[in-house]
Design a protein that fits this description.
The protein is built from 17 helices and twelve strands. The protein is globular, with a radius of gyration of 26 Å. The strands form three sheets. Strands 5-4-3-6-7-8 form a six-stranded parallel beta sheet, sandwiched between helices. Strands 10-9-11-12 form a four-stranded mixed beta sheet. It binds nicotinamide-adenine-dinucleotide.
């Protein structure tokens, strides 16, 4: 005979074999009582629509508030950059809506499904307000943002006219440029320097000057420049010491985008890479990012065709449908399309686009389904289309007993319209990362993979490409930072 106490502290007496089985009985009864109580409360909440908050936990680390102006510095003031800046101004003036932006229009569910708590993302975490954004940029052409946006031909002329004074006031600083890295274009607005280190110093001067003249309290660099020729990392990219030596010696393996990245990170400014170039996807940049607590992320905005690929491929894998071929082709006629007409730049883009299927479908785990895929990606420069790209996908899949089927996707998209909200979210989230004690020293911000075709990870970790896993990762990171429960979708508690 032994005593045991229930969850309400009442004493009971019962016959047990020994003391251990008495303790076990007490634990089991207590757990059952707690589960029943939680279930009763849940049902009551569901019936009454009550919004019971889970006990608030402390925020992880600290998140400084977004005080003062945020300076956005953009190397490459072409179609994407001007569509982004014009869009921010149009939204600020109440002329348009920030459609496609998670930070502006998205919500985040907190707690249980029955809690009814889904604040807007921008109300949940302290993001900079659109009114606090100020801009500068670099380009090899001298056009101001109004002229560049008019040439890009993405936005309607009447809409641009309404934004003309603002856009005309943003003129490009002379660029660091090397024609060998972007063969299809050349322009007059280019810096001269004795060495690549000298050019980096000039960019650092630009950054300091912009911070001072704009009154910004924080800065972000967002690469929207052309896609550079394909290169593999070399010794020069392995450490800060080697990289600085290579800068002084004008090593040809240092591309212009890397000089911008080095200058930014040296100034403690976070850097996001919207193109597929290596740029910050290098050991030296990870080292520098961690050292100076300036977060980095990349690469290559996930906008049209790859967005669709990372939605469809997870569906095939989820249903164990096999894939024998995926032929993707594009026609586009903007300057990006012209640059990608060069085999060197196309190779960089091709590498970025091809990795997606392999990582999502995991042929090593499913050799009968995905062990023999013919995957082809083509990009064709076709001037009449301008920025209005057409992306075709022919997908050959097979199902039960191996019977073949086909899917055709024809996405008549607008490249820069899809890219602009991504730029905005990256700017705001990278700035948040730098104000957050738990994230600022990590270097790569893998939680922002959602926005990239070829997400950066620490060496040895494979990237996550599935769009919905990426979104869950992003939102769970925000929940984690705010001390909220992570959402696992287990949901057994609703059925107790
Ligand atoms: N639009 C999309 O959907 C999308 C998707 C993924 C990636 N991207 C990438 O984003 C980048 C921008 O695309 P875009 O459509 O705006 O191209 P764009 O050609 O209109 O603009 C790029 C600009 O960068 C400038 N530039 C090139 N090298 C430079 C340098 N070293 N310094 C400063 N400026 C430089 C060019 O003069 C040009 O004005 C490209 O690399 C593109 O591949 C775009």
């Amino acid at each position: 005979m032994a005593d045991w106490w229930d969850a309400d502290g009442r004493r009971h007496r019962k016959q047990f074999k020994n003391a251990a089985s008495a303790r076990e009985h007490e634990h089991r009864e207590t757990a059952l009582a707690h589960a029943e109580r939680a279930s009763r409360e849940m049902k009551l909440a569901a019936r009454t629509g009550a919004t019971k908050r889970s006990p608030a936990k402390a925020d992880r680390g600290t998140m400084e508030p977004a005080q003062g102006k945020l300076g956005v510095m953009i190397p490459g003031m072409g179609a994407v950059a001007t569509t982004f800046v014009a869009g921010v101004e149009a939204v600020r003036k109440g002329l348009a809506k920030p459609i496609g932006s998670l930070t502006q229009m998205g919500t985040i569910r907190l707690g249980k499904r029955t809690d009814g708590r889904s604040p807007k993302v921008k109300e949940f975490v302290p993001l900079a307000s659109l009114d606090d954004l100020v801009f500068t940029g670099w380009d090899i052409f001298e056009d101001n943002m109004f002229e560049a946006a008019s040439n890009a031909g993405v936005l309607d002329y009447r809409q641009l006219e309404q934004l003309k004074p603002f856009l005309s006031s943003i003129t490009p600083r002379p660029a660091v440029f090397d024609h060998n890295y972007v063969k299809k274009i050349d322009g007059p607005n280019v810096k001269k320097g004795k060495s690549k280190m000298d050019l980096a110093e000039q960019l650092r001067d630009d950054i300091r000057e912009f911070k001072k003249s704009s009154g910004a309290s924080r800065l972000i660099t967002m690469w929207c420049g052309s896609t550079e020729s394909y290169i593999e990392p070399t010794e020069a990219h392995q450490s800060l010491k080697a990289f600085e030596k290579a800068l002084r010696e004008n090593d040809e393996m240092i591309a212009p985008s890397m000089i911008y990245a080095y200058a930014s990170l040296m100034e403690g400014v976070p850097f996001a890479n919207g193109a597929p170039n290596l740029t910050v996807d290098l050991p030296v940049m990870l080292e520098l990012s961690r050292k100076n607590e300036a977060p980095i992320c990349g690469k290559d905005f996930k906008t049209g065709q790859t967005l669709m690929k990372t939605v469809l491929a997870p569906a095939f894998k989820a249903r164990l449908l096999g894939l024998s071929g995926w032929y993707s082709t594009n026609i586009l006629g903007n300057r990006d399309g012209e640059v990608l007409d060069d085999p060197g730049s196309f190779k960089t883009k091709e590498e970025s686009k091809l990795g997606v299927l392999e990582h999502i479908l995991q042929p090593g785990l499913y050799p009968e389904l995905y062990g023999n895929i013919f995957h082809k990606v083509r990009i064709n420069y076709y001037p009449p289309r301008g920025d209005n790209k057409e992306g075709w996908d022919n997908i050959d899949i097979f199902g039960w007993l191996g019977y073949p089927m086909q899917i055709k996707v024809d996405f008549l998209c607008r490249d820069s319209i899809l890219a602009a909200p991504i730029v905005l979210d990256l700017v705001l989230f990278l700035d948040l990362a730098q104000r957050c004690s738990e994230l600022r020293g990590l270097g790569i911000q893998e939680w922002l993979s959602f926005y990239f075709k070829s997400p950066m990870t620490v060496p040895g970790l494979y990237p996550e490409h599935d769009l919905f896993i990426q979104l869950m990762k992003l939102k769970n990171t925000l929940r984690h930072l705010k001390g909220e429960e992570l959402i696992t979708h287990l949901g057994l508690e609703y059925y107790d």
